[in-house]
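Lab notebook, bench 4. The sequencing result for the construct came back, and we need a structural model before the next group meeting so we can plan mutations. Quick request posted to the team channel:

Model the 3D structure of this chain.
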Amino acid sequence: MGSMKREFKFFTIPQWKQEQEYLRFQHNNGWRFINVTFPGFYHFEKCKPEDVIYQLDYNSEGRACKTGYVKLFQDCGWEYLQDFFGYSYFRKPASEMNGNEEIFCDDSSRLDFMKRVFKGRIIPLIIIFLCVIIPQIFINLHINNIYGKVFTGIYTSIAIVYLVIFLIFTIQVWQYCKTAKK
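Done. Here's the predicted structure in token form:
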């Protein structure tokens, strides 16, 4: 077996916990997370199996406050790994943890995290949907040739994909909010 491996995994926006658990599981089995690349390829290198906690945060400030942001987590013992589509990846050996130490220590900070993700990811998608996709469907409906029909079909398909994404995200956020309030 080689010293490197790559796996394709897809996690939706509210599934950051499952992604963290996946990375921890890999490390427990001797595969240290190196990075993730588009569209969801996770790269690992062979290592000694160790219990390592992985945490994700959504850094809405991006590069503007990057140095201070990373330093804050490093001061708490977290190793910064990378940014990917707004998410920052951190890890820390479980042996160095002080109890149930998490980046998000309570439900209100987790809900704040979800709001930052919503503002950074979903609002731009909604704007594109309303300002580009929907108008294009109506414009192409009035074109009475093969191109109009083809583009109407393409934009309608894209609209359906968008609606499915919105629906999945809404259900997952609703479920998370419901469990967070318990």
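The chain has a mean pLDDT of 84.
Will bring this to the meeting.
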